[in-house]
UniProtKB/TrEMBL annotation:
Cellular compartments annotated: Cytoplasm
Reaction(s) the record says it catalyses: L-lysyl-[protein] + 3 S-adenosyl-L-methionine = N(6),N(6),N(6)-trimethyl-L-lysyl-[protein] + 3 S-adenosyl-L-homocysteine + 3 H(+)
InterPro entries reported for this sequence: DNA_methylase_N6_adenine_CS (IPR002052), Efm5/EEF1AKMT1 (IPR019369), Mlase_EEF1AKMT1/ZCCHC4 (IPR041370), SAM-dependent_MTases_sf (IPR029063)
Any Pfam family: N6-adenineMlase
Any GO MF annotation of the entry: nucleic acid binding
Coiled coil: none
One GO BP annotation of this record: methylation
Gene: Eef1akmt1
Protein name in the entry: EFMT1 methyltransferase
Record key words, sorted: Cytoplasm, Methyltransferase, Transferase
One term under GO cellular component: cytoplasm
Lineage: Eukaryota, Metazoa, Chordata, Craniata, Vertebrata
UniProt keyword Membrane, yes or no: no
Keyword match Lyase: no
Amino acid sequence: KMDDDDDIPQLSSHTLAALQEFYLEQQQREGMKTSQGFNQYSIGSIEEDWQLSQFWYSDETASCLAKEAVLAAGKGGRIACISAPSVYQKLKEQDGEDFSVCVLEYDRRFSVYGEEFIFYDYNHPLDLPENLLPHSFDIVVADPPYLSEECLQKTAETIKYLTKGKILLCTGAVMEEQAAKHLGVKMCKFIPKHSRNLANEFRCYVNYASGLD
């Protein structure tokens, strides 16, 4: 009687070893993420998904924008990050500071942040949970996922609904006119950088006297 597993192609011992090593590394990486030492809020703890047009800011830019948001929000301020999770992550690193923050994001991987995560699809700009009251945030930091007027216009509806007044928008330099039209924001001198260089020039826009000039 023939052995049943004769017709199963056998992996060479070399391939097998390589595979095992790969799985081991993956496990270690995942393990790191759950072990105490891993900072779930650090940029890159959730990797970019280009299908979702995600591009994280460089560490420096995220820090700068987070600092600006805290200053603009003031003591005990509330900050909303729309499609700008790397700014949210930076804000969360500043533990013990006197402000609260939530992240509105399409990518459900960010739901690991619990209560502060709000699923957000810019196609339904006002489809928001009831506990997000109108004009309840001291500042809204937004980075619409696409450089299109439609995306900006819809995200703008959300921004205007949530903010008490202050807006910090990051988008392409090409969107300057539309940003002024839909949100009344002006370009700052500060140039945001991404962890990978983008083809499009990015800029920051605000509607208040910010520290970004």
